[in-house]
């Protein structure tokens, strides 16, 4: 690994040759070598995924680890993970990729095509798709033919074949979505018991008949309920403007949106007065931000403050937007250590919120210069560092 890293560093430092023909030849050679490196990387990722090592380090999944620690885009992480999971079933693909005889694009496409086939169908599909590669078909054509293979298998069996791993634990819920020719979308999938309970609790009340004249069947009402939830239903769009009181009363200091976008003071006043958008005043004010132990759940005003402070989950590297996160009692409300007060609340995604509750010694909690909490995942077995408590926020009178 050290030698490969040193070679890569040396190549990166070198200037490209002046000859375009030489650059083309070197590009093809380097691309083939890169594909062989990808074969080695696939083997490493397969072990990490099979033994759930990423979860031991506090990541929700192997894909989350690839995105957070290796900086991969979602599509790239998914492609690499799928290849790692299928390589043990694709002997010819794995061998040819490792020897530089098969480009990574073809290997990834074949791995995606066989992901939901059983071992027997997988072997037949691998042979067929490799023959198409030999005939010069593009990766896009291979992908289309792989989808057709899955459809034929489903028709032959009289059912849509699901991944055998879909019934194994919380992470194995899955949804496939395919766009139809008329712009619509086919959806199929499987939810485990926990996700199914959330589905039923959210969509069940909305999927009831709208009245005696409602002729829709349950599947149609469920689709309408899902569309209502995804679009926000009757809830109006909410915009939060963060600014000083002086700005609202005629000052020139700029305001900002929750994503950090600055807006002129005059525009902030127009938004607040004419568009029905409520300005959020951070400080004492009249907003009840400190509720003590009497109240378990955060209020709407408290959540509005937290969404302003936390654009994403408080766990470092987690990309879940703050608007989709849960309000977390930093020191655990159930333990009686953390009241429902704004200075001991943060936003945490659902997975990390559960992880924090079951692995309290695996998170190192600090604050930044703005008083926001930062949760850092610690490696398994590492000694917990001394926790630096945040300075107290000014409490409301």
UniProtKB/TrEMBL annotation:
Task: Give residue ranges for domain DUF222.
Answer: 27-307
Name the domain of life: Bacteria
Region feature Disordered, mapped onto this chain: 376-397
From the Swiss-Prot or TrEMBL record, give the protein name. DUF222 domain-containing protein
Source species, please? Actinomadura monticuli
Q: Which CDD domains match?
A: HNHc
């Amino acid at each position: 690994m050290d030698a490969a890293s040193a070679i890569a560093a040396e190549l990166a430092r070198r200037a490209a040759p002046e000859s375009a023909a030489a650059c083309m030849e070197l590009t093809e050679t380097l691309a083939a070598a890169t594909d062989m490196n990808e074969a080695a990387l696939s083997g490493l990722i397969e072990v990490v995924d099979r033994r759930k090592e990423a979860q031991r380090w506090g990541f929700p999944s192997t894909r989350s680890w690839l995105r957070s620690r290796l900086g991969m885009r979602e599509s790239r992480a998914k492609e690499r993970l799928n290849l790692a999971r299928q390589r043990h079933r694709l002997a010819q693909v794995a061998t040819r990729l490792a020897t530089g005889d098969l480009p990574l694009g073809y290997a990834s496409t074949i791995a995606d095509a066989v992901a939901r086939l059983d071992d027997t169908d997988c072997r037949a599909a691998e042979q067929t798709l490799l023959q198409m590669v030999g005939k010069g078909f593009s990766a896009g054509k291979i992908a289309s033919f792989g989808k057709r293979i899955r459809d034929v298998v489903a028709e032959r069996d009289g059912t849509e074949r699901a991944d055998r791993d879909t019934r194994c634990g919380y992470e194995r819920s899955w949804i496939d979505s395919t766009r139809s020719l008329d712009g619509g979308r086919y959806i199929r999938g499987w939810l485990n018991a926990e996700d199914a309970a959330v589905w039923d609790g959210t969509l069940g009340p909305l999927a009831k008949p709208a009245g005696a004249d409602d002729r829709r069947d349950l599947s149609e009402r469920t689709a309408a309920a899902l569309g209502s939830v995804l679009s926000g239903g009757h809830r109006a769009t909410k915009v939060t403007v963060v600014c000083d009181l002086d700005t609202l009363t005629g000052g020139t200091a700029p305001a900002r949106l929750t994503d950090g976008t600055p807006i002129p003071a005059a525009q902030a006043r127009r938004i607040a007065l004419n568009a029905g958008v409520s300005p959020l005043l951070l400080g004492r004010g009249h907003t009840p931000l400190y509720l003590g132990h009497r109240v378990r759940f955060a209020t709407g005003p408290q959540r509005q403050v937290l969404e302003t402070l936390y654009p994403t989950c408080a766990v470092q590297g987690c990309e879940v937007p703050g608007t989709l996160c849960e309000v977390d009692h930093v020191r655990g409300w159930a333990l009686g250590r953390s009241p429902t007060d704004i200075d001991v609340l943060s936003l945490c995604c659902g997975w990390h919120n559960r992880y924090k509750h079951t692995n309290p010694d695996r998170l190192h909690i600090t604050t930044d210069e703005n008083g926001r909490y930062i949760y850092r995942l610690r490696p398994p077995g590492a000694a917990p560092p001394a926790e630096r408590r945040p300075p107290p926020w000014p409490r409301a009178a």
